[in-house]
Amino acid sequence: RQRQMCIRDSYNGEGLMSVSIYDVAGKLIYNKDHLFTTPQKTISVDGISSGVYLVRLQTNKLYYFTKLIKQ
Asked: What one-character-per-residue DSSP string does 8-58 give?
């Protein structure tokens, strides 16, 4: 069972990143700012049900969207 999501910031590597997760209906189910001190951050998705989600990553320099499939 998938319990963590790994995020890699290849642009900056350090700083604040907002992580938002939306369900397929567009409902926001997770939103938190994470401080990156290394280029990689692991986030727990243990409290999220199985399904397909849209993940939005935002820094002061970029927005990035990706799909998360939790089994």
From this structure: E-SS-SSEEEEEEEE-TT--EEEEEEEEESSSEEEEE-TTSPSEEEEEEEE
